Amino acid sequence: MSAIRGGRASATKLVVGVDTGGTFTDIVVRDGRKAITLKVPSTPDDPARAVLDGLAELLEGRRADLMTYGTTVATNAVLERKGARTALITTEGFEDIVEISRQARPALYALEPVKTPPLVPASLRIGFDERMLYDGKPQRRPTRRGLARLRRALKAKRVSSVAVCLLHAHPNGRHEREIARALSVLDIPVTLSHRLSPTAGEFERTSTAVANAYVGPLIDGHIERLARASGARTLRVMQSTGGAIGAQTARREP
Question: Which GO terms of type biological process are on file (predicted)?
Fold first, then answer.
């Protein structure tokens, strides 16, 4: 642990920065002109534990006004395939879009190319009978019978998260919202592609929604615990873009 002096006093009384990775967790506490740093081993089984133990040592019972948190928990979950059991609901006939992708090959002349399997296996991809036209006009609306069948299918598959990505949902997400309302009784998180990535390009929108649903339950619980146990008045979470978002947004759209 080391103390560093210098710089201009912050308008916020007590500011904390945390960066946690798979090996070490780094914490910086700035109180006026004084900054104190601490490096502790990470706790991959419970990433919040290392953060909370380090904060307890540095803050000594004080409450942070602002904590900014950066973590690789979501990235590691994707790389290690340790995310939630996720189902993908898409327009009937487009169930394999995450498998087909853009047909781009990183090694063009490889005789035996190896393709990374999608986060959602074929057994958890469900085609739904509906159709939205390219301009956002409904051609075939969801039916009550179809929605009831969908609920039964998801119950049988015992999933803990759902991604919904329907064809041409970006100009009109009405059908996705109808599905979300029908699934609300299941009490599982549902990611809607048109809210997360309202752009053309079915593969990109689908893969984004799937990734969010895959890590969502893990990050939701992690951030909720960190926000509650840290006692920080404001918690921000770093994004890969270099910006930061609020804790509630991070829990909903990691």
Answer: glutathione metabolic process
Q: Taking the domains of the chain in order of start, what are their residue ranges?
A: 2-78+218-252, 82-214
The one-letter amino acid code at 228 reads: R
Question: How far apart (Å, rounded) are the C-alpha atoms in residues 248 and 162?
Answer: 19
DSSP string for residues in 191-221: EEHHHH--SS-HHHHHHHHHHHHHHHHHHHH
Contacts 24+ apart (CB under 8 A), 5-8: 5/33, 5/34, 5/35, 6/33, 7/33, 7/35, 8/33
Question: What class does CATH assign to 2-78+218-252?
Answer: alpha beta
Taking the model in full, what pTM does it have?
Answer: 0.88
Alpha carbons 187 and 249: distance in angstroms, whole number: 19
Distance from C-alpha of 9 to C-alpha of 32, rounded to nearest angstrom: 5
d(CA 210, CA 124): 12
Tens of pLDDT, residues 95-138: 999 998 887 777 888 888 888 899 999 999 999 999 999 999 99
Alpha-carbon span 176 to 223, nearest angstrom: 27
Which CATH number applies to 82-214? 3.40.50
**In 3-state terms, what secondary structure has residue 177?**
helix
Distance CA 41, CA 47 (A): 10
Closest by Cα among 64, 69, 27 to 230: 64
